[in-house]
Model the fold of this input.
Amino acid sequence: MHTTDDLAAAHAALRQSIESNTEIAKLLLALRTEVSEHAEKIRRALRQDAKALKASSHRFREDVTGITGQAAERISRQAEDALKPRLQEHGRMLASLGTQVERMGRAARTWTFASLAILALTVLVSLLVLGYFRRELAAARAELQRYEDAIPVLQAFYASDAVVCGNRICVNVDAGGQPIGGANQYAPARPRTAENEK
Done:
């Protein structure tokens, strides 16, 4: 039978487990938010770099055209050929970084869902254990109440000169006692003495 101290300890352990899982879920949600914000900043910076590079390339073309006239086309082609590997490398790096950011986002989502699932499972198990202990406590209280209700009967039986005979109680009736009951049909038993116990 479980005691109140056992129930309190189980309740405290459950509460501590729930609080620690709540803190883990909060940390994972904060990590996911921070990773998402960082990824968005990187995307914005890369977009700005690409725009700036594109604008710089466009300005470069205009400058070359203005300076060289008809030779601008040839110089522009040479500049594009010179910049093309850099642009391709920049594009590959951008794609690789985008893939890494996406992987980090998926990992953060996976951790978040796993933490929420663990938290939900912990809460469910806690509720089941708490329900079990409540039922056990109710049963223990009911049994204790039965014992407490039986105490006055046992005290009265022990104080009376009575014995169990078969399915009934046989008493040594006190002839001088005051009858009780609606029709005075009950006579009190004599008090138990050390001689009666022999």
Q: What stands out?
A: Helices lie at 4-68, 72-159, 194-197. The mean pLDDT is 83.
